From TrEMBL:
Organism: Megasphaera intestinihominis
Protein name per UniProt: Phosphate-specific transport system accessory protein PhoU
Residue ranges crossing the lipid bilayer per the database entry: none
Function: Plays a role in the regulation of phosphate uptake.
Gene name of the record: phoU
Domain spans labelled PhoU: 19-103, 120-205
Length: 216
């Protein structure tokens, strides 16, 4: 019975790591699509979100099956509970990659060639590093001290968001003929900010997994 349990836990961890890699790739590709105005790549990201959703559902099913049917001990139950929460945040990150891709397509269809605002690349880079870091942290226990640093990065993303909102408001006032494009960019920047929030949530759940401390 113990062997079956350990095998189930190992399979879930393997599937979670595979899911994390796909989400990380979606984050990377979403930036490429946005920066290069690559409609074909954006469409692939948008269409591929269903694949990630299916992987999330599969992991959730395995997690719940282990939790309900195999009687995990307290520490393992805490890990399974954290994994369930992490799955929700990973799904939302992938959803926002699809959302950004949708607006990449929309922005290109207007043919206005509105440039990306200065600072968005740096904001996206910090967020992407958060996603990459928490996926790495998931793989091993004892990373709570590193995971706690995600709050600092999230603060950087939040400040970048505020700065970019001011920049886009000024651009919209100066170029009202492109208002719809700037609104699209506002939404893109909001999605980036939310992705950082979800990465920070994952870090908090990893801290809970390792220390039994809830900070959310």
């Amino acid at each position: 019975m113990l062997e079956v349990y350990e095998k189930s836990v190992a399979e879930l961890k393997h599937d979670m790591i595979n899911l994390g890699m796909k989400v990380e790739q979606a984050v990377e590709n979403a930036w490429k699509a946005l920066e290069d105005k690559d409609i074909e790549l954006a469409q692939r990201i948008y269409d591929g979100d269903d694949v990630i959703d299916d992987l999330v559902k599969n992991c959730m099913k395995k997690d719940l099956t282990i939790s309900m049917m195999q009687g995990p001990v307290a520490a393992d139950y805490r890990s399974l509970m954290a994994t369930l929460k992490i799955l929700s945040d990973l799904e939302r990150i992938a959803d926002h990659c699809a959302d950004i891709s949708h607006y990449v397509i929309h922005l290109e269809q207007t043919h206005h060639n509105v440039p990306l605002p200065q600072g968005i690349k740096e904001m996206y880079g910090v967020m992407a590093s958060m996603v990459s870091d928490v996926i790495d942290f998931y793989k091993e226990r004892g990373t709570s001290s590193q995971a706690s640093l995600m709050r600092d990065k999230d603060d950087i993303v939040d400040q970048s968001f505020n700065n970019l909102m001011e920049t886009l408001a000024a651009e919209m006032a100066a170029h009202p003929e492109n208002s719809k494009d700037y609104i699209d960019l506002v939404l893109v920047i909001k999605y980036i900010e939310r992705m950082a929030d979800h990465a920070n949530n994952i870090a908090e759940w990893l801290i809970y997994r390792d220390t039994n401390e809830i900070r959310i």
